[in-house]
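Service request form, structural biology core

Requester: graduate student, group of Dr. S.
Request type: structure prediction, single chain
Budget code: on file
Notes: please return the result as structure tokens.

Sequence provided:
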Amino acid sequence: MSEPTYRYDARLANEIEPRWQARWESERTFRAANPAGDLAEPDHPRAGAPKQFVMDMFPYPSGEGLHVGHPLGYIATDVYSRYLRMAGYNVLHPMGFDAFGLPTEQYAVATGRQPAEITAENIARYKEQLRTLGMGYDTRREFATTDPDFFKWTQWIFLQIFNSYYDTEADRARPIAELIARFESGEKSAPDGRAWSELTEVERRRAVDSHRLAYVTEAPVNWCPGLGTVLSNEEVTAEGRSERGNFPVYTRTLKQWMLRITAYSERLLSDLDGLDWFDSLKTMQRNWIGKSTGAYADFATYAGDIRVFTTRPDTLFGATYMVLAPEHELVDALTAEAWPAGTPEAWKGGHATPAEAVTAYRNEAAAKTDVERQADAKQKTGVFIGGYATNPVNGESIPVFIADYVLAGYGTGAIMAVPAHDERDFAFARAFGVPIRQVVAGKDEWDGESAFTDNVDGVCVNSDFLNGLKVPEAKARIAAWLAEKGRGEATVTYRLRDWLFSRQRYWGEPFPIVYDETGLPVALPEEMLPVELPQMEDFSPKTFDPEDADTAPEPPLGRAKEWVEVELDLGDGPKTYTRELNTMPNWAGSSWYQLRYTDPHDSERIAESANESYWMGPQGEGDVGGVDLYIGGVEHAVLHLLYARFWQKVLYDLGHVSSPEPFRRLFNQGYIQAPAFTDARGVYVPADEVEERDGVFYYQGEKVNREFGKIGKSLKNVVTPDGMCAEYGADTFRVYEMSMGPLADSKPWETRAVVGSHRFLQRLWRNIVDEDTGEVVVVDAEPDEATLKELHKAIAGVHEDYRHLRMNTAVAKLITLNNHVTGLEEVPRSVAEALVKMAAPVAPHIAEELWERLGHDGGIAYADFPVAEERYLVEETVTYPVQVNGKVRGRIEVAADAAEETVREAALAEEKVAANVAGKDVKKVIVIPGRMVSVVAK
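Core staff response, request fulfilled:
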């Protein structure tokens, strides 16, 4: 028996969907109207309407394309955007591609192809997949970070940062020219106290460069010889190996570009309060910024003061030794020529001299990443450097060690060790036989077997003038004492470090910087932007023996001799300059791309101010502005978002943008997980080649174990949307992903469950279209009272669910209403049309088709979303659960306006309740109106 000609199935879905996608494209359905410029459209359906800017964290286009986990957030923002258009908003919903970076470069090296060619192919594949899924993007605003017209402005923003400094008095960034003017006028002294006129030109430039928000310095970095490049912290695993290739990573000190994000620490922290983000996400950012209140203390040595920061200055009398990072600048000067008399053998590390001990230990430390060095290993390592420091509060001479758990890039690179009150210091002191002195006492006597750390409510002991003071009072007293004696001061510090901004790669944004004969950086003028990469046949990074830490990066761009050495006239005649050989990290483009979406074709600025302020400006007093909804994975909770907030604030300070924050509301979607299978060795096998027999799983005849994990190549469990769309249609795929569970939750993919979503759309189709004739079967009749109640309850619920991103419960309400309609003898047109409108955001292709068959022109995208009538939302009855002594024993249904006495009587008369209270004394019957009844009986 043949299938009905007009049945909604994969065949019909795959005929409808491309047709509507082509129509949306030709009619430019999803364009958003700008208030000014080439995208201003006075005749737009939502011209003059309130705006909403909805945005996804854009993808990195890989050759594999999208798997079913990727579109979860994309579909959600598309559903939300479609709903908002129908609710009366002018909606900007764009998409772009984050396309520079190491993965493409490595693939290009492996295949002998150009990264630009590979990137174009990958983007084309992603675009086709997103189009197949029915995404309603304003494609006029599309770009890739690799487009010269885009990265020209990335380079321009870098120049704004380079040409700025942070004015701590004004608490904002200001043009570097203002700082130079302050130096020249004498308002600000040169770093060494000399008059500005006494400095040479090079000295002046160095003084200015030391204040810039973008600066060059020697910095500890993650060096990966096996990849031939420096890696960011996020590219290094907890085991101290590269995420790509699993090569060992070493700490090296190299000349690098840094961005002074630390100048914004307090603003990045305090401004979180104005953001509509998950509390957990804000906590992650607060922890990363890591604000600490305490004091600096200076310990004197013959080589100069060692400055430490401590949150517990009240424990200074308990400092019995010091620890420096192996890279600390005073280590060499403090290292003695010979071991002082009486040096314990444990302090020497088996070496004949302090210099030998320091050199050997530094080599060991360089072979570890910061993550490994900070791990709380049981075995504490370190060596005495033969030098001593003087404790400023009691004049004691205390030994100075180096140990890898202290990092040069954190704090001052030095700590005072108070072993009685810090677990890590206690373990070190026990291992090396260093004195341990209690200086804070609590209610109970300290046993001395482990550090006494629960002491914030204690009182000071063995601490001279602090004795008897509670910790808070002692902190204030000692901070004032240090300041009075010139040996320190109260201060606030942050865990946040400046942003390492250099990569020894080819496939990244070139810096708009050259170097002159002095070796100092010179900014290129804006008219020379963009600086484009040279065409190179060999751009592979020079790799080394992965186990050889004594190597250094050789950036691929160094081979492009004609590009590197360039003659330019930068205002003082033609001269030869050398270009910067590093490239920017791929965080650069994603730190500002939201701004370019607002005005992507402006060739004179990052965005026309009228367009930027319309889409991203504050909407009232106290509003921080930014994108109205930004959706993406929690893996970008810290770095990408912190970097984007930093760039936005610099541009805001300089007057280029209207809002201090880039993303007003942020939502993290969960992951879709899929079955993954491991063999007896624990190695993952291709999930699509695994067979199930009677609940047991086999791969090539061998039994394998099943688990669920995040979809990806590493678990070999990729499921693509392409096959799902071919088998069921894109609308079914969309409905299924949105119905799987709350958007923020991770959930398992189950291919067999997709059929439920398909059946819902089939019933929706049948309620309106005859499967045999294709004729519309709705009638122009008034719905009955019960149907009106079901309809308006659904309208109210779906409206709220879409607005709050509860897509799964919106779908559930649509299914409930559709099932009710299925049971009607005739389907009223008004109900059918409202149902189709509500389904349109989540299943747009079938909704468009049904809307047109119902006789409407112009498409459903801008049809007004249904509005619920309050009179149909009033419940006539209320169901009360009835508890007896805390356990639900029955339920009653009473009139919504029933008096409390009536509710009590009905509760006690309920059969199961009556049985449970039989023979007992009913003490209380508590009615919580509209919610529950609680009976207390003994």
